[in-house]
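Suppose you are handed a protein chain with no further information: no name, no annotation, nothing but its sequence. What can you learn? This example shows the usual starting point.
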Amino acid sequence: MEKKKKISKASKTSKGKNVKPQKDEKTQPQKPPKGKQYQFGGKTLGAGRIVLALVHHWAASHRNATKAELLAAFPDELVGKKYGVVRELKEAEEISKQRKRYFLGEDELVTVGGRKYAVTNQITATIADRIIAAVGAKVKG
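A reasonable first move is to predict its three-dimensional structure. Written in structure tokens, the prediction is:
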């Protein structure tokens, strides 16, 4: 008994090659945004960027705070002691030599008490939710 070949939805061209039919863009399902999204300050942000925004927001009203006050507001335990939420710029650059672990762009750095700090980018939605709850921010997400 001869096996029947499966007929695919692809059609054959004059050269005998299979070609998949073109799908109308209007019938394509919309892809959901990658990862959880948060609303803060009129912007839609991902998990890492929401934490960066929260640290910047805190720093804006605590310009003369000490390192201890910054670390009390964003304790390492919220992320994990390996990276912490914030690190002094030099330490963050050292950790990021092999692989970028912090937001290091000039506009991403946070200045508190005359010192520059970097915020970790090693943030998941679970960690972001934990930080949001800890700082008591009004964030939609």
